[in-house]
Design brief:
- The complex is a heterodimer of chains A (81) and B (275).
- With 81 residues, chain A is mainly alpha-helical.
- Helix content of chain A is 81%, strand content 0%.
- Chain A is built from 3 helices and no strands.
- In chain A, helix 1 packs antiparallel against helix 2 and helix 2 packs antiparallel against helix 3.
- The longest helix of chain A is centred in the last third of the chain and has 25 residues.
- Chain B is mainly α and 275 residues long.
- Chain B has 10 helices and 3 strands.
- In chain B, helix 7 packs across helix 8 and helix 9 runs antiparallel to helix 10.
- The longest helix of chain B is centred in the last third of the chain and has 29 residues.
- Chain B is globular and about 75 Å long.
- Classes of the chains: A mainly alpha (81), B mainly alpha (275).
- Chains A and B meet through helix 3 of A and helix 7 and helix 10 of B.
């Protein structure tokens, strides 16, 4: 596919990864984690691995985000480190 | 200590990046991945298995034995989550009830004085009180379509992207959406913890049961062509139907594990109230 699209998706993956480990609000981290998974899903789709993209979208961007949000609501929202 | 950790991480990352020099170029036709088994799969999979989706053919037919143990791993994950998070000690704390005619929320400290069986009082959760008509109505409309899409993903895993794992996750997401839009007790009334556990085990039993049936019919474990003796269909389509059967088993296990994980995380293992 177009190298411009590849570059944008790769940049967004790196940005989401760095932001997810830098944000102190754990709810924001959960959202960024879901965005990271969705960007990885786009990467798999661009490389032609549609089955893996499907799994990344449903498990990573979908259900795992719900699990992380539920865990955040059961613990604390502000990280301490 | 944080500096030492950073140094270790940098060294390991550097080693990994150095090792990537030995990788073949992406899409190189002479790389080992392209010369060992992939040509056989690409040219013979449709003829040998009857499944146009090569990923499903490899996952459920050529490597069906490995995928069976992946289903057992999913079952083990659900079991580990129950063992780690489930607790049966109910906290002796007050309850909130909503008086439906007036909408007043009352807090009753003593469990013995709780209004049991009265229609006018509705037990509510003290952390999450979903009382939104829009959310309930939209989710009530959406959940059946999500479940139909999950069933489609399972059944069409042979022909299009998807399969038991993806379909099971989507179906489990519809169950999680039901728990989110109403409340956890409503979901557990529809699908109890025992039912979820039995469904999870049923998935593994379906998968290994199909394999044992192939042995009983005289072939190898998970050799689906032996099912032609009991399925009155075109013999060329029997392997695809065998794959569909094992995908249904995977779907059952994955769906149940998704719901088990959510219920235990959302309620901190108490299963009385949650998100």
């Amino acid at each position: 596919m177009l190298w411009q699209i590849d570059l944008v998706i790769l940049a967004l993956v790196i940005v989401c990864a760095i932001a997810a480990i830098s944000v102190r609000d754990l709810l924001g981290t959960a959202i960024l984690f879901g965005a990271y998974s969705f960007m990885m899903c786009l990467l798999w789709a661009v490389m032609g691995a549609v089955d893996v993209a499907f799994t990344e979208a449903s498990v990573g961007a979908g259900v795992s985000s719900v699990f992380v949000v539920a865990a955040v609501f059961r613990t604390t929202r502000r990280t301490k480190d | 200590m944080k500096l030492a950790g950073l140094i270790i991480v940098m060294i390991c990352g550097g080693l990994l990046l150095t090792a990537t020099q030995d990788f073949p170029a992406w899409g190189d036709p002479s790389s080992p991945a392209s010369t060992h088994l992939s040509p056989h799969f690409i040219t013979e999979a449709l003829h040998e298995t009857g499944a146009p989706n090569l990923v499903t053919a490899v996952l459920a037919d050529y490597r069906g034995y490995d995928t069976m143990f992946e289903t057992v791993v999913v079952f083990g994950a659900g079991l580990a989550c129950i063992l780690l998070l489930r607790t049966y000690t109910q906290r002796t704390r007050g309850r909130e009830y909503r008086h439906i005619p007036t909408g007043i929320v009352i807090h009753i400290q003593d469990p013995n004085k709780a209004p049991k069986g009265q229609r006018e009082f509705q037990l509510i959760d003290n952390m999450w009180v979903p009382h939104d008509l829009i959310i309930k109505t939209v989710c009530r409309i959406l959940i059946p379509f999500i479940q139909i899409f999950g069933l489609y993903v399972v059944c069409h895993g042979d022909f299009s992207p998807g399969g038991g794992f993806q379909g099971g996750v989507i179906f489990g997401a519809s169950l999680i959406l039901l728990a989110l839009s109403f409340d956890l007790r409503t979901f557990l009334e529809q699908m109890s913890e025992k039912a979820l556990g039995l469904l999870c085990a049923l998935g593994v039993v379906i998968y290994s049961g199909i394999g044992c049936m192939c042995i009983l019919l005289g072939g190898n474990f998970l050799d689906y062509s032996q099912l032609a003796a009991v399925l009155p269909v075109d013999p060329g389509h029997v392997r695809a139907l065998g794959m569909l059967g094992v995908e249904i088993g995977v779907g059952f296990s994955v769906m149940s594990v998704m719901a088990i994980l959510y219920v235990n995380i959302a309620s901190a293992g108490r299963h009385n109230q949650g998100l």
